[in-house]
Amino acid sequence: MEDRGSQLSGTSLKVLLAESTFWFDLEQSWNKTQDENEEVDRTSLESSKNVYQVFKRLSDIVQPWICDQESTSYQNNLLIIKACLLLKKSTNADQIITKFYEDSFKAFKVFNKELFNFSDENEEEDDNDNDDSFSEESAQIILQNINLFNEILFQLDLVEEIANPAIVTLIYQQLTGFLEKHCKSEYSENWLQRVFTWMDKGLMSWLKFVNSKFSILDSHGMICDQADEISTFSIESWKQRLEYFVYKAFAELRISEMFEIIVEYPDSLPAIKDLQECLSKTETRRLLTSSLKSAFERRLLHPAVNTDDILTQYVSTIRSLRELDPSGIILENVCSPLREYLRSRDDTIKCIITCLTDQGSGPDLSEELLGFGDDFDTTKKCDVESDGEEWYPDPVDAVTSDAQTKSQRRADILNILVNIYGSQDTFVSQYRILLADRILNNYSYDVTNERRYIELLKRRFGENHMHYCDIMLKDIQDSHRINRRITTEMKKKQEGGEQADQAKENKEKKDKGEEVSVSSKTAPETPDKIDFNAFILSSAFWPTLANESVDPPSQVESLMSDYNDLFKQSKGMRSLEWLNNLGSVEVEVELDEGVTKNFNVTPAQATLLVKFQEKDDWTLNDLATSLNINKSSLRNRIAFWIGQGVIIEKSNDHFTSAQTFQSSQLNNSIYESDDECGATSAQKQKDQELQVYWSYVVGMLTNIGSLPLDRIHAMLKMFASTEASTQCTLDDVKSFLQAKVNNGELVYVGGVYKLPKAN
Question: b/e map of 713-732 (b: 16 or more CB within 10 Å)?
Answer without folding.
Answer: bebbeeebeebbbebbeeeb
